[in-house]
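Working notes for the structural subgroup meeting. M.R. asked for a predicted model of this chain before we commit to crystallization trials. I am recording the input and output together here so anyone reviewing the notebook later can reproduce the run.

Input as submitted:
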Amino acid sequence: MTGPGAVLVLTPHPDDESLGCGGAIAAASRAGKSVLVVELTDGRMSHPNSRLFPRDRLIALRRAELTEVVGRLTPGAADVVMLGFPDQGAPAAPADRAEVRTRLLRMIDSRGVSAIWTTWEKDPHPDHRCAARIAREVVGVQPRLKLWRYPVWGRFVDDVLEPGDSLYRFDTTAFRAEKMAAIDAHRSQMTNLIPDDPEGFVMDTRARRHFLDSPELFIGDDAYV
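Returned structure, recorded in token form:
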């Protein structure tokens, strides 16, 4: 899944990397691979009505959580780049996507990236679909890159793969401790840390258990077999 070089993980929001591919990130790090985690949006809409955590404080919290997570999954073997687009405001316009694509291509060249992992283009969230589209455009410029897409909320919807795609399962049993620590570190999403927004997002216990106990899913080209 990594190819010979480093891995770039394009995550739409802070926590998608842990839920969708935290075990695989830990496995890549343990195998000696360098990992670059690129955060597309800042997660500001998880608790939009909180007064205790207004926008700037919430953004800072979620970024700090992501930095802690990457340190847990890849001790000393990963970097984090935060692009800072607003949550639910991933770059949909062609000019904005082109700017992000150019930045990613520079990172890929400078860091020797051979694989991109990002969310699935059929995930039911516009930021997830946007991340997949950007990654696909990057691979269109650099076809040597391997592209793997991991469903997050797409795990729970009835949909089909595109022709030429195959579904792969990655057993995370050996990396369960690292993945659990990563998920737990997203305290703003997993606990009642932010108590004053009844409309704020807190992951259901059953969903959290599913992500922790189930194999990670990756969608790749049939040619990768």
